[in-house]
Amino acid sequence: MILKRFYDDKLAQASYLVGCEATRQALVVDPNRDAAAYLAAAEAEGLRVTHVTETHVHADFVSGSRELARAAGAELLLSAEGDAAWGYTYAASEGATALRDGGSFRVGQVRVDVMHTPGHTPEHLTFLVTDGAAADRPMGAFTGDFVFVGDVGRPDLLEKAVRVEGSAETAARELFRSVRRFAALPDYLQLWPGHGAGSACGKALGAVPQTTLGYERLFNPAFQQPDEAAFARLVLAGQPEPPRYFAQVKRINRDGPPPLDGFPRPARMPDRALANVLAEGAPVLDTCSTSDFAAGAVPGTLNVPLNRAFNTWAGWLLPYDRGVYLVVDEERVDEAVRDLAFIGLDRVAGWFAPSAVPAWAQAHGALQTVPQTTAAELAGRMRRGEVSVVDVRGAAEWRAGHLPGVPNVPVGELVDRLAELPVDRPIVVQCQGGARSAIAASVLHAHGVRDVVNLAGGFAEWLREGLPVETEMEVEPVPA
User: Fold this and answer.
1) CA distances from 119 to 5, 53, 79, 148, 386 (A)
2) pLDDT in tens, 412-427
3) 54 - beta bridge partners?
4) Scanning 160, 207, 302, 469, which has the fewest C-beta atoms within 10 Å of its C-beta?
5) H-helix or E-strand containing 255?
6) Average pLDDT, stretch 334-342?
């Protein structure tokens, strides 16, 4: 049996190719939209992709299963378990094979047994893999977003991301039962999860690429809790806010992702067109570093650096119903377009070279800047009542410790909560280390809030200076 792992660092997302050495058939599990990468990898191994499947309806990236199956002429296999409202509405029209608990299928001599493991989502499946050429029992399992290294998939996404009210508690209890059932399998079973550290599909994912069931039984907190109600409290507490784009991507994957046929490069726009694009109200995303943006940027542009967090913050801030423009280095245009397509932001209308920024300044006046302050300076200004401070981290981070008297408005919620922000004095934005607050400053500027300062070093620097901190005790609901 041949096993190859694909990993996208920015999404912290893993997909897999499994091949039969005898028949040269191959299965791809949880592919992203880069169909060409899987086809090339299969060809390099002398394999042909004959089967494509996924563990569940994903929320954090747009699935490539439909497009890959079409491109390879492969059988598409999709879960028929769970709630019809959030199952695959396109499965029948695509001729997909329905997968249910207890079923199985073969890829040459490789046997794949299907186990329904609801909790993260109602339709979630885990795939147990047996190398029939060498064994008569499973060697490993593709666990998707069910079991990670050191964690389990969050059960609150349907409620928090797509507003299925009251579903989180039910899902948490389903997850408990799935974990208990799964824990009865042999300790030697290798686990190949769908995500690693940095994914928002859990709260404490490990960075190790794989694990074993025996190890997780010993050290994963979800496997240590024998009480269903206590388990539900454990897995629901402290979950980060799901990025805004999760709801959109969930619907795209449910209804059928449109085929891309690669990642077409948008047209380069002339520098002089930047002013017109902004005047028309089109979103413009500058991908430069936060330090470069703070030193001088075109008013009205947003800043999300093209780094490991690019997908997440672009998905929080960009609209899906309008064309967007990028300010990006020419050698990174394709990377940015691909990253956006991975989360369903396919409408990149054009891109500007960084030279458009000084060209705008020459034609229209001074660039916008973001002043920086230190923790010590901020403490003095707070004592004198000279500034207002907003903590733009997640709610769980804020509850664990924050600057005294400082409210919490996460970056992704700023636009919706502008009315809550004080306008009678400068606003200092603050996060953990200074990166998210720099993005927040660009959001505020783009929406007309001009007197914005960034706390360099963020809350971490505040702690290093030994300055006072408040905490909030989270009161957990008692399950019925």
Assistant:
1) 25, 19, 14, 13, 48
2) 999 999 999 987 899 9
3) none
4) 207
5) helix 245-255
6) 97
pLDDT at 369: 96
Are 122 and 81 in contact, with CB atoms under 8 Å apart?
yes
Q: DSSP labels for 275-340? A: HHHHHTT--EEE-S-HHHHHH-B-TT-EE--SSTTHHHHHHHHS-SSS-EEEE--GGGHHHHHHHH
**How many H helices and E strands in the chain?**
17, 22
Exposed/middle/buried for 113, CB within 10 Å: 0-12, 13-18, 19+?
middle
- Give me the mean pLDDT over the 386-393 stretch: 96
127, 142 in Cβ contact below 8 A?
yes
Report the relative pairing of strands 75-79 and 97-99 from DSSP bridges. Answer: parallel
* 325 Cβ contact partners less than 8 Å away, ≥ 6 residues apart: 269, 277, 282, 283, 284, 285, 348, 349, 350, 351, 352
**Residue 271 near residue 352, CB atoms below 8 Å:** yes
List own/partner pairs for 217-226 with CB under 8 A and 24 or more apart: 217/183, 217/187, 219/150, 220/147, 220/150, 220/151, 220/152, 221/151, 222/147, 222/151, 222/152, 222/175, 222/179, 223/179, 223/183, 225/176
Question: In the numeric block, which tokens belong to residue 422?
Answer: 């004080």
d(Cα 56, Cα 42) in Å, to the nearest integer?
Answer: 23
Contacts (Cβ under 8 Å, ≥6 apart) of 84: none
Question: Which domains does the chain possess?
Answer: 2-255 (3.60.15.10), 273-364 (3.40.250.10), 372-464 (3.40.250.10)
pLDDT surpasses 50 at 480: no
Nearest to 232 by CA among 185, 178, 270, 181: 178
Instruction: Single out the residue of 382, 473, 300 nearest to residue 390, CA to CA.
Output: 382
Strand extents, DSSP E, 324-449: 324-327, 348-352, 372-373, 388-391, 427-430
Percent of the chain surpassing pLDDT 70: 98
Bridge partners for 97 per DSSP: 77
- Residue 478 is predicted with a pLDDT of 36
Report the DSSP beta bridge partners of residue 249: none
CB 301 within 8 A of CB 279: no
- Which residues make Cβ contacts (< 8 Å) with residue 227, sequence separation at least 6? none
User: How far is the C-alpha of 312 from the C-alpha of 11, rounded, in Å?
Assistant: 8
Tokens of 8: 């996208």
